[in-house]
Fold these 2 entries.
Entry 1:
Amino acid sequence: MNHNIPYGKQDITQDDIDAIASVLKSDFITQGPVTKAFEEDFAAYIGSKYAIAVANGTAALHLSALALDVKEGQTIITSPLTFAASANCIRFCGGSVQFVDIDPATLCIDLNQVEDQLKKDRKSKYKGVIPVDLAGYPVDTEALRSLTDQYGLWILEDSCHAPGACFTDSKGVNQNCGNGIYSDLSIFSFHPVKHITTGEGGMITTNDSDKAKRIKRLRIHGVTKDPDLLIENHGGWYYEMQELGYNYRITDFQCALGISQLKRAGKSLNRRKEIAKKYTEVFQEYDFIKIPETRPGMSHAWHLYIIQVPDRKNLYDYLQLNHINTQVHYIPVHLQPYYKKLGWKKGDFPYVEKYYEHCLSIPMYSSLSEEQQSYTIRKILEFYK
Ligand SMILES: *Cc1c(COP(=O)(O)O)cnc(C)c1O
């Protein structure tokens, strides 16, 4: 292999490029009609009532935390196994983060430990939970909802890894991650390593119309021009900045890419499933390679294929030498220097810390060829010979 094989990669076609070019030649290039069309298509794909497109996934988390009124004095529960932004959005708003360890099987936040945490502290301490559909494994938000309802907590689901993932609920209905049935808000990212890309980009999905309206206002500086919402009205030019917001707009040419990518989302998800199946078929024969959990009723979106192996560091280096760029998802967030300064330390969460010693994300993206996958498998097995 001459070229490096990354762990994740975008897939851009000529149709994608044509779609972007046609917007660049039109009257609107930043947030306009194509952004609205992308939001509608995305809501239809996920099955939510509303979708709001923003500059990136982190902006989606920040606006969600604002719309949920996170503020100083509040504590929010999240997983230490995620990209730091899932926890950072709480800090952006002045809230405190309570990490709760993972279930070592699913790698998502352990709902039993969430319950223990809620029972341990006074009832009003916690305001919400931010679960993460890690690697594309759907969190059982039905179970989480019945728990959070007892304590009056909201759910903000970080579904960045899980567009197209779903679980079968207790009524036998398939619930897509982000469809707004059990979670108050869900967020997605369109960074190039994610399922679909807009370069940089993000989305918030919800079935709550008030929160959707508020997020739209916060996305543009807290400004509204809606005549029904204005406090005064001086004429056609008039707008009001009703609260402190941000500029988290996405551009129409990025959304043109998103619409074009979304057309292939089902097909590329199937390709990810095929790749996962092949890895699993091979690696399940080797008991020193721990493969990802799959369960009936849990439809995985395979953003990442994470194996847990002995001697991970040397395997990483060996694959690197052979032009296979693997990754580690993630360094536990509570062990980042910023969070350590806030009081978290090694030993706080034994399951995620043990997982971190062994995990490795191997190449997984829709344009990974059969030849590249076979080569990757061969090199991994060669290392352990
Ligand atoms: C990618 C990602 C984010 C942040 O998305 P950006 O678009 O990079 O800001 C947040 N959470 C998780 C789990 C992610 O994978």
Entry 2:
Amino acid sequence: MTNHIGDMMFSKYIFIIGANPAVNHPVSMVHILRAKEAGAKIVVVDPRFTKTGAKADEYYRIRSGTDIALIYGMLNHIIKNNLYDKKFLEDRVYGYEEIIKEAMRYTIEESSNITGIPVKDIIHIAEEMAAAKPASLIWNQGLTQHTVGTSNTRIMPILQMFLGNMGKNGGGVNILRGHDNVQGSSDMAANPDVLPGYYNLSETSWRHFAKHWYVEYDWLVSRFKDKKMMETKGYAHSTWKFGVLDEENIQNNAGTKLRALVVIGSGMTSVSLLDLQKKAMDKLDLVVFVDPYVNDLAIYSERDDNLFLLPAASQMESSGSVAATNRSYQWRSKVMEPLFECKEDQEVLFEFAKRFGFLEEFQRSLYENAKKEGRSEFIWPEDATTELTQSIRSIGLQGMSYKRLKAHQENWHMFDKVTLEGKGPFKGEYYGLPWPCWSDKHPGTPVFYNDSIPVMRGGMGFRVNWGDVSPDGKSMFSPHRLPNASVAGHSPVSAANAESLGIKLTKEEQKQVEGTTYALGFGNNTLVEKALEAGLCPYGNGKARAVVWNWYDKIPLHREPIHSVRGDLVDKYPQFPDKPNHYRANIKYRSRQIEKDWVKEFPINLLSGRLVAHMGTGTETRSAKYLAEVEGEMFVEIHPDKAFELGIKDGDMVWVYGTMDTRALIKAKLSYRVDVNSVWMPQNFSGLEQGKNLLDKYPQGTAAYVIGESANMVSSYGYDYNTACPETKCGLCRIEKA
Ligand SMILES: Nc1nc2c(c(=O)[nH]1)N[C@H]1C(S)=C(S)[C@@H](COP(=O)(O)OP(=O)(O)OC[C@H]3O[C@@H](n4cnc5c(=O)[nH]c(N)nc54)[C@H](O)[C@@H]3O)O[C@H]1N2
Ligand SMILES: Nc1nc2c(c(=O)[nH]1)N[C@H]1C(S)=C(S)[C@@H](COP(=O)(O)OP(=O)(O)OC[C@H]3O[C@@H](n4cnc5c(=O)[nH]c(N)nc54)[C@H](O)[C@@H]3O)O[C@H]1N2
Ligand SMILES: [Mo]
């Protein structure tokens, strides 16, 4: 999220595309509605008429998986009518000319043909959004769960840059994140392709963390098969099953078949191709679930040995720092001690480390951080917080500390809800120190890329992350000088370039920082503090890049979903080529798309999303009596005309057939929320497997109050080309009365 939720109050126009905050982010929705009361126009683009759509000023139905084509259509009109911010592009964006070229290929008629949104509506949205100063853009999973998910997340900031809406209050691209700490878990490297703080997997990064963890780099190497595997992306949440089921994938995992699975904090039935996941689980030597509830996937297992359910403490029984959707960190206090024999997650990991024989190394940094405060025993999670804030300098967490975070949490009333600014002792700070927070004097950064305020007030340009010069020889630096800065655009700060950037270091300071960069410091923050004194943002002041020269799609391109309802468009807008070794699995794209005429056999577009009463797989909420009562049954929304055509009445049980030879038994709910060619189902149920009731699989006394088929038993094959996020926001199915 570039801005924050309170900041919506400054928006004149809020464009919500692929998110349903009325259901999934009710607190954010309050801010959006307040902005509406203050005069902002709310516009929703969604394949389904959602509760958010119902609250909006304007709602437009889009065919799922076609958002890129919509934006190019809008840009076509915006560019032709000169409604864009030329100066912003010239100064701050590399490669925007390529976007203009691509947009010229999308006449509004073509955009309308692909998306299903009428021509006059595309023109209307484009004109009104371009006229609103500023406009905010919100998205969430409606954009990411596609093969082109990453391209979706690139075209939206590109649109905002054409409109000059980046780096401004009330503007930006605002992604409403999922679980309460999903931002924190990605900052902490829940992803298999990075180290904490998005450091890459290179030797330099590993050496950086070896220092902060107080272990030898060679010892870290010895934990892997070899150095090459240490620097190779791991399996993703979505791809591990192929490392069990598919001989041909095993070569990507150093020739080793996966043998064990430890699940800690995922419901797992949330991943597409549930049937394959079940089969993979049952082929492993060992399966362990660490969860306060009986994990949903465990119920699907047919194994009778070596499956363990370890009781985890819940969030009420643990404490620590969590990151909110806007990059603010918050301290969370323990409400009660863990009940019965359950353990906090870190205790479970410590027990594992003990048995694996590396507990001492695992905990060493905790003891070292305790020592710095004159203690001989570490305190959890305070000393772990010190480890992560001191090591994660790439995105600027080093200005945070458990003391600062606790002080903010204990003084909520001292912060403004719209601007996040503190009062009294917190004057000048922003609530939760949204990163980057570069030093213990830095206030945090509430709005990204605002280069009109000094860096010590949260100002910054775009990050210089891909070199100083593009492959075609253009400077990647911004011509803008931040207020009080010693220079205009510049590279990331390092000991080597400090002097040339006007950063003054004494001889002693030079010795302290020798060989380091802003991201690789250890033991002191001198280089960064001196850069701040010179008015410079440590990670450089550069241009955004609209052209990602090292990616397959250098600019975002519309590609028809693998399983598209518009079979007539799949050759004009074909999928990516198949991708070998994608998070260690060989993933199909185009070959799957043309394997057969999918839409003939499976004529209906399959959408999925969420219910307000349930969370994720629903493991927790379906075990809560009153929530189970509010939403007690899995259902599939079908348009009445389609239902009539299929001979289905409201409340009938139907079979939904997926494209992977699976089916699900679900109650039909007739609804005009979906269009005639689409059905929608919530992702919040599990416990019924292709018609088979699994209630007797729960250990005695642990069953959820309500169970139902999982949407992922029938969701289609398909993965984002960069992240391997499953394509669960479109796909095909066939429906028959049961
Ligand atoms: N009550 C509740 N709240 C939750 C959750 C929950 O399970 N229950 N889950 C949390 C989590 S983990 C997350 S990630 C968030 C998710 O929050 P959202 O992303 O808001 O959730 P969804 O309902 O999955 O999808 C949003 C919308 O995207 C639309 N959509 C589908 N395909 C497309 C498309 O191709 N284009 C466009 N423009 N729209 C499309 C869907 O119709 C849906 O209305 O919610 C969080 N909040
Ligand atoms: N078809 C379809 N599939 C989807 C989506 C969709 O829109 N459509 N959305 C996707 C998205 S965005 C997401 S985020 C996923 C959500 O999928 P998951 O993250 O898999 O869903 P949750 O049910 O939230 O899973 C959390 C699990 O952690 C457990 N848990 C809770 N607290 C703790 C704790 O403190 N410690 C431990 N160890 N465990 C704990 C819970 O009991 C639960 O079993 O679903 C994805 N799948
Ligand atoms: Mo999510």
